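Bench notes, afternoon.
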Amino acid sequence: MIKSKLNRFALIALAGTAMVMGSANAAPVVFADGDLVLGFRSGASSVYQFNLGSSISFRDNGNLGLIANIGTDLVSIFGSNWYSDGTLYMGIAGVRTNNTGASPVSGDPAVTIYTSKSRSNLANNSTAPTLTPRVNTATLITSMQNSFKLQNATANSSGLGAEVAKTVAGDWSEYMTASTDFTYMTDIEQKLDVISSGTFAGVTQVEGALDLYRILNTTTGASPSGTVGTGSRETTIVIRQNGDIYAVPEPSTYALLGLSAVAIAFVIRRRNQKLNA
């Protein structure tokens, strides 16, 4: 009898420990205001949202290269052939604040919106977006971000990605429709079966490509500046078949960067030759 009670207490204690460990592992995603959300949605019961990092880092460096790998999460949620799923879409959105009275941060005034535009193919840039109701759009993006902050990170995403049930208020899919995204924008998302194993700016096996744009609500405090309401292209985010995410410039820009490097090397070589003559 005593032994039976001891075994029962041991099982209860073990279950309690497992519950504590489980809750400890279920940590909220890492997200700060000004970060960008990469969202995936399909006919599945869940969406997947991933924190790409600071929007300003993409603005200041369009050639960040490899950012992360989310292949394990995509396979787990959408299946092993997620990259050819005709119902799967991906897009990007982010804003630091919808408060027009907030001070600029690192050259981005309040209500500076970052958004993606889908590419019809790897050879052609998307058309720069224009946006009039910017505060309203920023408010909707803020709601999505606030919901994302409350989600628990997956085990494979380094705390940056979360599987979010479509029943959760503010999930990515709530703001996407067939004709409008965040109510006031279009073509944020790209369907994952549009591009198939192409090469973009040296990155091979590309299955999706999104041009990232920065849209100013005011030029006061903006650095770099731009045209209010019209997007300026910052970089292209591509995803490979294995789940690698890259931020790379458009191929012609990439080629120009290579030519510039060659030219600089040539000038340095000529100067050294003169010094050694």
